[in-house]
Structures are given as C-alpha cells and as structure tokens.
Amino acid sequence: MSSRTLNHALLNQALGYVREGNMRRARSLGFNDDELRELRRMSATELDALASEGAVICRLAVDHSMLMARIYRLTQDQDREMQIDRCLELGASVQMMADFFGLTGNDCSTRRALLGLESRQGRLAQPPEEAEHAAWHRWQAICPHPSDPQRASLDLQGMMTLAEETRLPLAVIWHLVKNWAAPDQPRSEIPQDEQEEDAAGGPTWVAM
C-alpha cells in the first residue's frame, strides 16, 4: 500500500469517527485531540494535500477487538449455514427450520434442491414403539436436561445427534422430544408440514 493511500485511508477513518462523535475510536488510530481538532477544521482540498505528502504521516494499526469480533461473526455464520444444511439432510420439517432458523418454506425448498435432497410431502409416520423406546433411553444420556420442556426442545445439537444415531427423521425426533419433556400433557400426533405439501397431497414419510 502506498503512503498516499494509507494516509488517505486513516485520515478519512479518523474524521469519520470524529463526525460520529466517537472520539475514543479516533484516538485509537493514534491521533491526539489537538491533531483531531486541526484535521476537522481543514477543507477537503487541504486534507487531500496533506494525505498526498511524500512522507508517511500515518501508520497502519490493527483494531484487535474489531478483528476478532468479525472473525467470530464470520465463523458463526459459517457454522449456522452448515447446521442448516445438516438439519435438512437429517429430515427437519419446514416448521422446525422456521422455529430454529427463521427459514420459510421456499427457503427450505431451495436449499433442499441445492443439496440434492428429495422434497418431502405429507405427514410423518409415528415410529414403532420399540424404536421410540430406544430413542427415549438414548435421549436421557444425550440431553443435559431431558425433563425440562424448554431446554430439551431447544437442544438442537442433541436432537441432531439422536437423529443420526436412530436414523429417524429430525422432525420426528423434535416431536418426540417435546412429548417426552411434557409427559403429563396429552400426546399429540406429528403435525403435517402444510407449507411443503402440494395441492394434491403427498406420500407419508416413513421413518427408517
């Protein structure tokens, strides 16, 4: 990076912080208050002339907190995308994807197409009693709070693990977990995922 480019970048950044009233950020670039006052009163032409000086009047500094915050955010975004794809591969329903990720039916259809997944239609089948019993016992070991309805139904990673181990669709696991966490409530059937059903209806999902 040339000295002129660097000078322009840091001067403009400092003035931007000053205009926002964020003096702490402006000072963090290495300027003191007297320098910032002088820069603020200068015209655009004068600032351009100052930045074009051959001498390096500004030196690059790393905003460590901002850098790590952006790295963390990008990592979170990447992890979220991978988790969404894995949920769809494990058989999550549109309602489940809406609750956990805010996705719509169209979002799910598009992502399934990109992943090469078969579109799911109709109502999920209840698993056999033996399969549910085995899944329930495994859930007691996977979930830290299996009897807490709120915590259990939000343990997405745990439900993904259970779906992988039992080979039951993730939407079925989600429904079972909610029933297990509230044993005093009447058991409900697995709801039909109406947002994905076509007008003519579709085949029933069969748990593997």
TrEMBL record:
Pfam families according to UniProt: DUF2857
Name this protein carries in UniProt: DUF2857 domain-containing protein
Alphabetized InterPro entries for the sequence: DUF2857, FlhD_sf
Species, as recorded: Billgrantia ethanolica
Annotated stretches, region: Disordered: 184-208
